[in-house]
Known about the structure:
The chain is of the alpha/beta class. It has helices at about 25-30, 100-105, 220-230, 275-290, 305-320, 325-335, 335-345, 350-360, 360-370, and strands at about 5, 10-20, 35-40, 50-55, 70, 75-80, 85, 90-95, 115, 120-125, 130-135, 135-145, 160-170, 175-180, 190-200, 205-210, 235-250, 260. The longest helix is centred in the C-terminal third of the chain and has 16 residues, at about 275-290. The protein binds flavin-adenine dinucleotide (FAD).
Amino acid sequence: MSIPTSQSPDIIKTDIAIIGGGNAGITLASKLKYQNALVFEPKTPEDRDVSWALWATGNDQKDIASATRGRWKQWRLVDHNHEILHNSNEYYYTSLSSADYLHYCEQQLSPNVGLVRETVENIISHGSGGTFTASGQQYYADHIFDSRPAKMDKAGLKQHFLGIEIRTKKPLKDIEIATLMDFRVDQSRGLHFIYALPFSDRSLLIESTMISTTIEPVDWYKQGIYQWLDGQSIEIEEITREELGIIPMHETTPKDTSLSRIGTSSGAIRLSSGYAFTHIQSQINQLASNIEKGDYRVPQVISGTISTLDKIYNRVLVAEPSLGVTLMMKTAGALDAEGFSRFMLGKATIKDWIKVILAMPKLPFLTQVFRL
Ligand SMILES: Cc1cc2nc3c(=O)[nH]c(=O)nc-3n(C[C@H](O)[C@H](O)[C@H](O)COP(=O)(O)OP(=O)(O)OC[C@H]3O[C@@H](n4cnc5c(N)ncnc54)[C@H](O)[C@@H]3O)c2cc1C
């Protein structure tokens, strides 16, 4: 690989260094058209292949089309008492292969942007840039953007899950509907639900997901999946993929506060849902366009008000986990498909908010507001 930088025998210099070529880092790298830049990422896209989902309109498809594995205009939330089915005219619940998305971005890199498959170490920040090493080579960048994941708090609220992708023995029913949350599983250890995306009539992703503070043994998540499949009379012909994930739903501690951070470690994640893809895209689009104008400050894309409301929501979940199913079902039930999509995207209107607030049980929320 040729490195688009000025070089001396000892140190490679570049305008911009991006640490981490995950969602935020490689998206930013792919949008830099005029600056010399290097993005450092030790792993290949295949090393990190998981399913990323988002609510997208027809206009949002350009950069995600080649990575899209499935999209649904209908989605549902189910508990023992009822089913809420949303049918959208505007939004698709869209599932991407992260590996395909990362490959797509890597292919979009301009000749002035290099990808270095190495780990960054020994960072010494200076102004908005600094020096660092990667595989023994020393580098200097005028501007550094750090996307390394921040440290989670062991006792913090998390969304954690195990997913399997299967080929089924018989054709599936209702493949036009994505199941976002099916709560008809063991609730004894915290808020637990099954997430199921039918990619075709014989291919299904099923995730056993918990929202709680404690990570469970792998077999426990699997048991949830098998029980749910049994209940749906779905038989597995073959397991084709497995994925594990832990997403923070609390404020995390960045690796290095002296650096400009991008992506989830900069707070571009909804604390109440763990959805981050759309927020990261929005942050990076704004940042790339600012950089063209000489402004290297990282935009904050989730407002303070939304963060505070999300924190109150999460505090209620921690204080009263038994209310979890009710809160999720009432949130979805209060909104139609378009309102729910806006809510999940952080674009809820005042009317959407009023509907959700009116649907919530008041006392648990007021208690947590006063404890803030
Ligand atoms: C399994 C899983 C599923 C998710 N699903 C969804 C979803 O469906 N929808 C959604 O909106 N969000 C989802 N998220 C949340 C979020 O969108 C993803 O975590 C997303 O990858 C965050 O992007 P990022 O760039 O902030 O971090 P990452 O994508 O994690 O990128 C950080 C990169 O930094 C690299 N790195 C670390 N240390 C160094 C170093 N020293 N030098 C160089 N590179 C380094 C890592 O290898 C990594 O690739 C999911 C998260 C996980 C973990």
